[in-house]
Give the backbone structure.
Amino acid sequence: MNLIEVKDLSFYYENEKYVLDKVSFVIESGKYYSIIGHNGSGKSTLAKLLMGLLVKKEGSISAFNLAYNRQNIEEIRSHIGIVFQNPDNQFIGSTVQDDIAFGLENRRVPHEEMSDIILKFTKEVGMSDYLEKEPEMLSGGQKQRVAIAGVLALNPDVIIFDEATSMLDPVGRKDIHDTIVKLREKNPNLTLISITHDIEEAFQSDEIIVLEHGKIFAKGKPEEILEKASDLKRIGLNVPFLYEVKEELSKRGIKVNEYKDIQRMVDEICK
Amino acid sequence: MARLSIGRYVAYDTFIHRLDPRNKILALILLMVAIFFQFSTYEVTFIVDGILALFIFGLMIVSKIRFKDFIKSLSALWFMILLLLIINIFIPGPNKESYGVAWTMWNYDVYWASIFQSIKITIRLILMISLTLILTQTTKPLDLTFAFEWFLAPLKLFKFPTHVVAMTLSIALRFIPTILDETHRIMNAQTSRGVDFKHGKFVEKMHAIVSLIVPLFVSAFERSDELADAMEARGYNPKGKRTRFRKPKWSFKDSVSLLYVSAITAGVIVVSVLNLAITSDLFFASSLLVEFAIFIIFVLIGIFYTTFRRKK
Amino acid sequence: MQIKFLDVSYTYSPKTPYEFNALKDVNLDIKEGSFTGIVGKTGCGKSTLIQHLNGLLIPTSGEVNVDTYVLTNNKKRRTKKLKDLRKKVGVVFQFSENQLFEETILKDVMFGPLNFGAKAEDARKISIECLKKVGIPESYFEKSPFELSGGEKRRVAIAGILAMSPDVLVLDEPTAGLDPTGTKEIMNLFKTINEEGKTVIFVTHDMSLVLEYATNVIVMKDKEIVKEATPAELFIENQEEYNLETPQISLLAKALIDKGLKLDLTKVKDISSLVDEIVKGRAK
């Protein structure tokens, strides 16, 4: 089932060149998508358009069979949640539980139900011991986990991660990564869209969309994208580490097929 | 990492901490009224102030405010006390002579009344600061904002967006530590580029301040953009109806303690009226009585209003 | 310029309820001309340490010697004028793009040199030179810095420090938030600067950058320095006790060695050097 359909979508800020130029793709239910590309390739603009925070200039965009317009936007947003890049600038409540409550209050969840919901989802991200903590007492990774809990509490069908790990240290990054993996195991119907620089992470998703200068440069399953590895490198994007090793080896006459698992690759090299 | 410690909420679980923030604000106002009431003689003034001081210091002990924090919160006061003393000594006032001359300095008479007056104001300032300290150390900023919003509720009749004001306030409070950290970071960065924030000529100082203020503003604007997006994405609509997570509960102990504080204030006013009547300032006394009546009505309405709103 | 830490400890807000010890008995020797990486988990004291390098912080106890400058709590021994030190040790803080404030990019870069007393003409000359070095085209010079993208802003901020012509360049997580291309460009820039003879000190969480670029590495853990080594030495041994991630290259290389392939780990820095070693190893 297609949850989101984007067709020939274009966007530009006033008097400037196109940030997004005729972008088309569909988001299917239950899949994990990654959107990769340089800083300034239009990734974050795309996320804001999907959230209805920006209004398209040309083309069409619809979600859950609803066109993006003033009447539908509240309904659309009730299906889609987003975790932004900066942990500080999306922490709205003055404590962890107040922050999660913020979304619930907006959705007019009855007061009596809130505490249970907050507890349930802070547990899910491992933050239930921090309910009364203020943001300045939390690490970046912890704040992002609160942001995820805040999104989950609103029971969305799609979650967008807009470079949610790029401002975190390795510990925080791993935290969020593990949280996402667990989330997918628990909710197989949840659709994820991850906008990321982390190439290793991107290649674990079901589908990859590569953006370059506001256009879709490539789109497909990770294996299909890797067939265009040299093109990716030409526009300055990395490929997964082991794949790059495999390619370097083949240049030097050592043929290896494996590039997904380090141990199998080692076995093949030492054969 | 350097954080302000004075006046910040300290998470204990005392009787005062558990009181409804609305009650605490009302009690603060009542006690302030009591503190600043006038009496015709300094004897009565000091006795009443002494009783109030005992009560307020009792409150401070109950709410576990550390003596060190209390002393620190007064640190800005010393200069003011000195200033007060000088002003009171050199500015002529009515009935200055009534308590006689304390000493004579270069042919200038220093009256006891001037010194008493300075002491009186000092005591009252200290009491006032103590009350504010109790309020801010025992009440979360968020709860204060809530109480503030609640008191403004009648303005909704005139389409005043009380909820938006309260939301703005609570976000401002939430971001104070973040912005302080940011200020510190930018100061470090500019100091590393040769800026001296402490010394230098006026022009240099202005330039130094610009190099701090501009980046702070730019980042504050960026923050507010991102914050607005984050709020919108989570369904915030300033015009829409919202439910509430935090609901302060007005309990029996709130009613009792508010009545208790009202009684103290009423007592102070009665003493003041009697005191003025005895010293035969009848006109002033009667005008105070009228004020007193108005005040009692105000308190009654306040308590009635709280009880009524609670049941709704 | 020699940099030496002698038993340096630092405590924030001492004698208050917010007292916080961030450095404990740090001894350190950073060699002139080195490319030194400082690594460790968040909160281990890295940022506090680098703020000692240009006198933003003065040790609570112990002594920091930078060239002839002495930073200590002892008022008699302490160097009085720290401004000269700040000219010699240029520090680029984390998210340095936030420090820009002038009307034009060129003016912003000139800000540092002018503060340190350079003549307007000289400041202009060196600023243009530095902007070119970080890859900002001349057509941008008169633009407002706020029109730039995040990565460009950061390069302007770095140019602003370079224009002070410091002998030592200190960088706090210079690649945070940059995409892989941006990271590579900026690290190569620091490498060039290092090769021109300047000492470069950088704080990072990215171990592969340490392996690829650094000549020396300092590992911090819980306010202390727990290891000083070359990157190869650090990643050969089992560094998990320091809570560090192992770069993927080292993981792969070690797995190959475990399988019996003979590799010289000290030569493995990036993919091409690893592949060189694999080819050699298989030939043996």
